[in-house]
Design goal:
Blueprint lengths: L2 E7 L4 H11 L7 E8 L2 E8 L14 E7 L14 E3 L2 E9 L2 H8 L10 H13 L4 H11 L2 E9 L5 E6 L4 E4 L3 E5 L11 E4 L4 E6 L2 E6 L5 E2 L4 E2 L15 H7 L1 H9 L3 H13 L2 E6 L1 H17 L5 E4 L14 E7 L5 H12 L3 E6 L5 H4 L3 E4 L12 H20 L5 H18 L2 H14 L4 E6 L3 H16 L2 E6 L16 E5 L3 H12 L3 E6 L8 E4 L7 H19 L18
Parallel strand pairs: 16-17, 16-18, 18-19, 19-20, 21-22, 21-23, 23-24, 24-25
Antiparallel strand pairs: 1-4, 1-10, 2-3, 2-4, 5-6, 6-7, 7-8, 8-12, 9-10, 9-11, 11-15, 12-13, 13-14
Helix pairs in contact: 2-3, 3-4, 6-11, 6-12, 7-11, 8-11, 8-14, 11-12, 12-16, 13-16, 14-16
This protein binds 5-amino-5-deoxy-1-O-phosphono-D-mannitol.
5-amino-5-deoxy-1-O-phosphono-D-mannitol binds next to α8 and α14.
Length: about 575
């Protein structure tokens, strides 16, 4: 949520480097942007409303610059509210939420602020400490101790060389190349320059100058050493290539990503299964699409290992937190590994002694670093806001984990699960071709003018109906709702009227009966299933993948959502009001 990026080096095109880097972080927020360059001791600010990808601005030569691509929290989408903010001698960009900003704002003087943001108040506090004679580290330390909430900040102070950054709860990392140092909220910002990274931990600060990088503990001020880590992501992988959108590219990447997820070392899977075995309460925590994956995992575990797991949307977990103790396993599913709702529960759970297993795409993310066992998705960078390849990789890992659990409990064989996933991956591979996408496009054309859509599924296809609804809602803005197929007759069927499109996931006899009930009330029935039923007005075939059917079924649903967005003239990579990683609560 909000992209922040800074560079300090020997090249004089810092402004252009920052713009280029922010364009690669645009998925984190895209309502407005701003860049500060430092030139001959002065800060020059450029801020605009709109997408950074459309920015054309030319900057004067400078060796230091930083910027921000915003997803609004405090205050509307205006030039004044966009970052960086300038207060006194301090220029600052912020990602996070400063919960107690209002009291500080009032004390300093509401009339002295240009924006409605919480972030400008951080700049004012740092400025206040600088004016009192604190050195930059002390000023940032003192300010950090006044902030309740999460933050990643990048700033410069007039009269002081270099750029400072600090974090607590929001992601921030440092990239190191031969001629420059970068600070960013995500790796893609600087991947074209370097893949050598230092991860900043909570309550750490970094000061970058031309040839000098200094890390310190934010609380004690003591300098610290950081390990250089080479990330396995490539710049090419983070580009769209021949695809028109990241969403489509990432859907097609499922040809490889599912098999990459399956090829986890079996020992790693077994160590995660052992965590489950040692605990007497298992909670799967996740948000959005990852939460629907967790809901599918509930079916996997019930069917495969006979274990009852608890699945809770992370934002709802506070109600159940009193059940967490040292015998609890918290299984976090998060593509980004930075989702605040998930992270906060894990932080509190850790303090109570709970064991943490994470299923994440970013191996050095905050969620990963707090975990006892990390199961990496290995899906490569996922840039489209709509999660696709990460979702199927997460499902594959949950499926494997259920098999590892079954083996440990003497109820099944791990390799049988892996083999079924291999077959599923091959079947999906065969599916993902332009002809298949064209067929789905033709179906999309027939329903694109409808404002409501319903999706039904049974068993592990029920959470897929919920996920289908999220995918369609977020990229096409069609009101879509998913239901358990058997629940229709208990209320939702009242919504069915002439020509309302209803996606029917699956072809088991009971679901087909429910499809007939829909048809009898005028619905346009679109089957997504291995076999064609007479009741279907349209049919999208999926291979028969037995226990892994939910994984295969998700793929055409993703393509359909994408096609609906395109037919409606929308940009599926940047849906309105959303951001890729949600680092605020
Ligand atoms: O990074 P995470 O997996 O924790 O993100 C969770 C949700 O924000 C995410 O899945 C969201 O629902 C996607 N936009 C759905 O496509």
């Amino acid at each position: 949520m909000c992209g922040i990026f800074a560079v300090s080096g020997s090249q004089t095109n810092a402004g252009a480097v920052v713009i280029a880097g922010l364009k690669k972080l645009e998925y984190r927020g895209y309502d407005s942007w701003g860049v500060a360059i430092r030139r001959e001791g002065k800060v020059v600010l450029e801020k605009q409303v709109g997408k950074i990808s459309e920015a054309q601005h030319e900057f004067e030569p400078a060796t230091e610059a930083f910027g921000h691509s915003r997803w609004a929290t405090h205050g509307g989408v205006t030039v004044q509210n966009s970052h960086p903010h300038r207060y006194g001698r301090v220029t600052l960009a912020h990602n996070g939420i400063f919960e107690n900003f209002a009291s500080h704002k009032e004390r300093i003087g509401t009339g002295t602020f240009q924006s409605e943001t919480d972030s400008e108040v951080i700049a004012a506090l740092i400025n206040e400490h600088v004016e009192k004679g604190c050195d930059p580290f002390e000023a940032i330390q003192n300010t950090a101790s006044q902030i309740k909430g999460r933050f990643a900040i990048i700033l410069c102070i007039d009269g002081v060389d270099g750029i400072f950054a600090a974090r607590r709860g929001s992601p921030l990392l440092v990239g190191r190349s031969a001629d420059a140092t970068y600070i960013a909220s995500d790796i893609p910002a600087f991947l074209e320059h370097t893949s050598t990274v230092n991860y900043l931990d909570d309550d750490e600060i970094v000061w970058i100058r031309k040839d000098n990088v200094l890390f310190a503990d934010l609380k004690t001020g003591k300098s610290i050493e950081k390990r250089n880590i080479d990330v396995p992501w490539s710049e090419e992988e983070a580009q769209k290539g021949d695809f028109k959108h990241f969403m489509l590219k990432e859907i097609f990447e499922q040809k490889e990503t599912i098999s990459r997820a399956i090829n986890q070392p079996s020992e790693l899977m077994k160590s995660a299964a052992e965590v489950l075995a040692q605990c007497n309460g298992v909670y799967f925590l996740a948000c959005g699409t990852a939460h629907k994956v967790a809901a599918t995992a509930e079916y996997f575990f019930a069917d495969i290992s006979g274990r009852k797991i608890n699945v809770v949307a992370a934002s709802e977990m506070p109600t159940f937190e009193s059940f967490i103790n040292e015998k609890t396993a918290l299984i976090a599913i998060s593509q980004s590994g930075e989702t605040a709702d998930v992270l906060e529960i894990l932080e509190r759970g850790k303090k109570k002694g709970a064991k943490i297993v994470s299923i994440t795409n970013v191996e050095m993310s905050s969620v990963a670093r707090i975990s006892d066992v990390v199961l990496p998705l290995n899906a490569g960078v996922e840039k489209a806001v709509a999660s696709t390849k990460a979702a199927t990789a997460q499902m594959a890992i949950c499926f494997l984990l259920a098999h590892a659990d079954a083996e440990l409990r003497g109820r099944g064989i791990f390799n049988v699960g892996r083999e079924l996933l291999r077959e599923t991956s091959t079947a999906i591979n065969e599916l993902l071709n332009p002809r298949y996408a064209e067929h789905i496009h033709a179906v999309a054309e027939k329903i694109v003018d409808r404002n409501n859509m319903f999706i039904i599924g049974r068993g592990s296809l029920y959470p897929m109906a919920l996920e289908a609804a999220i995918k369609i809602q977020e990229v096409s803005y069609i009101h879509a709702q998913g239901f358990a197929a058997g629940e229709l007759k208990h209320g939702p069927i009242a919504l069915i009227e002439n020509r309302v499109p209803c996606l029917v996931l699956g072809d088991d006899p009971e679901t087909i009966s429910n499809a007939m009930e829909l048809k009898a009330r005028g619905a346009k029935v679109i089957g997504i299933s291995p076999t064609r039923a007479d009741v279907f007005d349209e049919w999208i075939r999926v291979p028969d993948c037995d226990g892994a059917q939910s994984i295969a079924t998700l793929v055409p649903v993703q393509i359909l959502a994408y096609q609906l967005a395109i037919l409606r003239g929308l940009d599926p990579d940047m849906p309105r009001n959303l951001a890729k990683s949600v680092t605020v609560k």
